[in-house]
Amino acid sequence: MSLVKINIGPVHPSTHGLLRLVVTLDGDTIVNVEPHVGFLHRGVEKLAENRMYMQIPPFIEKCDYVAKMAMDEAYVATVEAAMGIEPNERAQYERVILLELQRIASHLLWLGAMLNDLGHFFSVFMWTFADRDKVLKLLEEATGQRMFYVNMRLGGLRQEFPKDFEYHALDVLTYLEKRINEYESFIENSSLFKERMYKVGVLSRDDAINLGVSGPVLRASGVNFDVRKDKPYYVYKKLNFKPIVLYNGDNFSRYKVRILEIKESIRLIREAFKQMPDGNATGMPIKLINPAPKNKVVRVSREGPRGEIMFYLVADEQRPYRLAMRTPAFINLAALNHIARGNKFANLFPIIGSLDLVMADVDK
Amino acid sequence: MVRLIIDRKDLIDTISSFKKKGFSYLVKILGIDYIDYISVLYILRNLDSDEEIEIEVHLNQNDLWVPTIINIFKGADWYERELYEMFGIEIKGRKVRKLLLEKFSENIYPLRKSFKWGTK
Known about the structure:
Chain A is α+β, with helices and mostly antiparallel strands and 364 residues long.
């Protein structure tokens, strides 16, 4: 049978942004998938070389517009490392709480979008979206903004948590825990879900390492690597964090890793609230920044919801000389061709969904 | 942070020997324009011991090429394409079929320092 080429996108509901795929098919089987990216390329790395240090967070956040806090924090931590600043303990706890809340919000949005790809049109999506909104309300309470926070300052946060924040947060966590268990029980019993998740899009352990994927995609293939555990930052050591690792490498494992991560995040936040010392977590105002030492090179890795975020900074006095970013979705998408090959065409979208792509993150 | 500055001709051997030693994960390939030369960095990680190593190659501005490492790390594919289009560093041993991010800007290399912000 002759091969057929199909063009998908760049604007397509299941590509989660502007992604064009050229798929070569043999009958109904995928022979090759060629992603065409770059529609959202803004040249963030070049832009960063032309802005002062603390002018950068507002646009670096938009790289991953689903998990803004993670990007923001990773960047500010890089600048802190270049300037030799370390946040105090309370600020570290508060950052961990915000980051884990952001992870929950990101995974909830992903869960709804993933079920959309499977054909559960907008029922689960609406529910998870409403739940995510509860988390966003919490973040708004803590930071003053609902979507784009720009909340990190050198040595801490822009503002201290409000008084009742802990009670509100714990309320929402109790609610979420119940909801996640509900989602789990009915999603996993759906026959539609089972057919398109179990043993579909398998990525073996060796291939996952060789392709350099990170985050839940890597851990679903049986690789026990989580930046929070293996290169611990802030107070993750004290919180007894355990990475979630599954071994099948299929769509289902990638789904399950994220579900279990939400539960782990809920546990981490509760523990962090219990251990958090008193004090003041407010960081330095923007104007008080000392110049960074010239030509100092720092590299900082963080575990974002989508995978490993890495910043490589060559510092200049007032602005970065070079800021290179490793964005997690970029390299996870690069693995798509390998994962999808040999699968049925209809299963391509669940596979894309299971990679949790944010196209602005890919295109930088 | 361990950094190793090596010669371009030793690149393939060095990287494959580190891979045999357990540095089996490629974190990132990136370029930095230092005006006198462009340096290309390969960041490798050992997933068992969590050690990391940076392997750096310095390239003369009028002799910009590196050999491909796609046969050692499959994940190098998109990083190499990005390197080519951002710095104009030719990747020998593979055909860079087309541009990845900047579709309309052939022969313009935006991350070089000679490319000024705000110009076309």
